[in-house]
From TrEMBL:
SUPFAM superfamilies: L domain-like (SSF52058). This is EGF-like domain-containing protein. Residues 1-26 form the signal peptide. It comes from Cirrhinus molitorella. The chain crosses the membrane at residues 201-221. One of its GO terms (biological process) is positive regulation of osteoblast differentiation. The lineage of its organism: Eukaryota, Metazoa, Chordata, Craniata, Vertebrata.
Amino acid sequence: MTASVTASTVCSCSVFIVLFSVYVDSQDTDAQLCQMCQGTVRQDSPVWDFCLTKGHIRGRCCFGNNTSNVDTIIGLDLANCSISHVEHLYNSSTSFIIDLSNNPISNLSDFIFQGFNHLTQLLLPSKLECPGGNASWEKVEVKNNARICEGQKNICNQTAQMPWDCPENSFCSPYGPGFFECSCLHNFHGYKCMRQGEFPIAKVLGILTGSTVVVSSLLWFTQRRKAKNT
Ligand SMILES: *[C@@H]1O[C@H](CO)[C@@H](O)[C@H](O)[C@H]1NC(C)=O
Ligand SMILES: *[C@@H]1O[C@H](CO)[C@@H](O)[C@H](O)[C@H]1NC(C)=O
Ligand SMILES: *[C@@H]1O[C@H](CO)[C@@H](O)[C@H](O)[C@H]1NC(C)=O
Ligand SMILES: *[C@@H]1O[C@H](CO)[C@@H](O)[C@H](O)[C@H]1NC(C)=O
Ligand SMILES: *[C@@H]1O[C@H](CO)[C@@H](O)[C@H](O)[C@H]1NC(C)=O
Ligand SMILES: *[C@@H]1O[C@H](CO)[C@@H](O)[C@H](O)[C@H]1NC(C)=O
Ligand SMILES: *[C@@H]1O[C@H](CO)[C@@H](O)[C@H](O)[C@H]1NC(C)=O
């Protein structure tokens, strides 16, 4: 649970709990992710280069070699896999690099990459935009028919560009490209913590694509109800 920060002092009141539990539920099917496409990580591909110095390859995945990440996916190469639809990427949220280029994908929800805090390089078919928009990345370029999104920006301290704040008694932490979460400080709890300030949902959506607006509002309301009940 990457972004759930020091649990002992912090009571997390993630706005995205609903989606997160969906993600947890789907972990069983993860085994198929690395076998989703024939073969192994393509030789001399970006993920291959990354994995050479950082881990070992199994199927289309690169797994970490460090004791801290020996069984986590740190890279994923699903390029040239004839994938037309991506709904989620299971538990590859620990990835540093993901390659989805050279696939007939026509649209991709920003929510797929929610919680992908480590992601520093993402390769997409060139006609797709980087999740969270250009503003969520240090560098965006198109090369060899792929859009390369590099260096995830920390949305929480871009105050000059986007002057939003978490509600009083909470703090902001990044939660994947274009996403952040507000966690309550110690002694402050769920709904009350959120209620103390006006959560800037409109500003979050400001940098997301229009298609996500409906989903977010829906989540916002379900989450509010959930928080009220606890
Ligand atoms: C990672 O470990 C595997 C064996 O578990 C080894 O073959 C590989 O060379 C290691 N990679 C690095 C970068 O140390
Ligand atoms: C593995 O550990 C080394 C140092 O111990 C660190 O430099 C490297 O970034 C780690 N790799 C990953 C993928 O976390
Ligand atoms: C993904 O989650 C499943 C179920 O929790 C687990 O068995 C599997 O080892 C995980 N895979 C990775 C790469 O973390
Ligand atoms: C994509 O994969 C096919 C085989 O599945 C291969 O013939 C083709 O050369 C690959 N294209 C690229 C750009 O790697
Ligand atoms: C992608 O587009 C198809 C039709 O064009 C639509 O059915 C699907 O829901 C879209 N998916 C996402 C994630 O927006
Ligand atoms: C993002 O940056 C790329 C490359 O600089 C550019 O082609 C694209 O139009 C930009 N997208 C938006 C929505 O500004
Ligand atoms: C944003 O915060 C991170 C750590 O929280 C820091 O490393 C980085 O330098 C900050 N960026 C700016 C522009 O202040």
